[in-house]
Amino acid sequence: MKEMKQMKCLDCGEMFKAKTPNEMMKEMMPHYMKKHSEMMKGQNKETQEEWMQRFDKEWKKAKDI
After folding, report:
1. Which of 56, 13, 43 lies closest to 31 in space, CA to CA?
2. pLDDT tens for residues 7-46?
3. Alpha helical stretches, state H, 1-65
4. What is the CA radius of gyration of the chain?
5. Whole-angstrom distance, CA of residue 46 vs CA of residue 32
């Protein structure tokens, strides 16, 4: 059984929990839409890829809880 991981929002530090990277992104999405809408709108491909690289790096470092 997969352990849950705890991870901070990449832009403000609010904490989220999930078992997989995809689940983590689903958990973070409403937060980003509400608190970081500027990150969600009008981002170019380069900016999106940079965010995903940061996300992947943080996911790999995230602690099991």
Report:
1. 13
2. 999 999 999 999 999 999 999 999 999 998 887 776 788 8
3. 21-35, 37-40, 45-61
4. 12
5. 18
